[in-house]
Amino acid sequence: MLISGTPGFLCANRYRTMEDALSTISRDRPDVIMTDIGLPGMSGIEGIRVLRERFPDVPILALTVYDNDEQVFAALCAGASGYLLKNTAPARLLESLREAVLGAPRCHPRWPGASSISSGSSPRASPRTIT
Q: What pTM value is reported for the model?
């Protein structure tokens, strides 16, 4: 509701599991991918690895309740461009999506390594499709 209800944003799809996402996400042609780390079935971290292989230039943000270095580091090592906690303010979440599309890494400020993460994605004009 937040994403599609905001001018300039469109949530192209939502998935209950990573397996569901991987089976159809190519049709959505996302500009940004947002995923939870704790998913039923395939974990979000393993899914990030697969998504990074399929979409090497698309920023992937992990939106999670996990606020520990081990989970965050695992997501970033798997290929996430950044991570945000689920309690992130709505305005900050939208700002983070815009920044990710422009190639800026996005991490919750609590994590000390946030400033040294490179997304490796190419700049884009604006977020049009969020998955």
A: 0.78
